[in-house]
Design goal:
A hairpin with a 4-residue loop joins strand 6 (198-204) and strand 7. The relative contact order is 0.15. The termini are far apart. The protein is 39% helix and 23% strand. The protein contains nine helices and seven strands. It is α/β, with parallel strands linked by helices and 216 residues long. Helix 3 packs across helix 4 and helix 7 (133-142) runs parallel beside helix 9.
Amino acid sequence: MVKNISHADLMDDVYTNQRHIYDLTRKYYLLGRDRAIEELSLSPGQSILEIGCGTGRNLIVAARRFPEARLFGMDISTEMLTTAKSNIYKAGVQDRVVLAQGDASDFDPKSLFGLEKFDRVLMSYTLSMIPPWETAIEKGLDALHEDGKLVFVDFWDQSELPGWSKHLLAKWLELFHVAPRESLKNVAEEVAEAADRKCHFKPIYRGYACLGTISA
């Protein structure tokens, strides 16, 4: 009999050891993360929530890129948050970053961070790991100010790459319970329209990944 475990426990199990080498290895195939951070365009005093902050890598980059912004991060994995806290402390930005454990598909920003809304929400290679990923997009939009912007970057359909590379990537990602969401463009546009917002979607690196925004 297959044991049913929560998504939080599954992620902890996957990253108990992987978290120690995550940033070293993922920089070779989690492409477009810095482009997504630039897309945030944070002004002094504005806030950002990263949903699925992992090891804290993106929050550290954002803290350096936008030195007067307020940064918040959440992740479902306590293992990843342990690494994030350590990395953020080593980077010397611990006074500017607040972390909390939370489920991307069901969280209350007020109870986690004391804020109801944020100026920016970042989702970097998280939608491909969240089972109810459509709901996660909706929750991300719910956490935005009316004039705020959600930025996402993730795996895409690899349509302009050789078929063998797509097959190998899919097999590799399965090991970490990652599944590219090939309907991401349509879902993002539908969610944006329902929220009376605009979606901009762009394949990057020949379709290896995609970069998108949902804003007023």
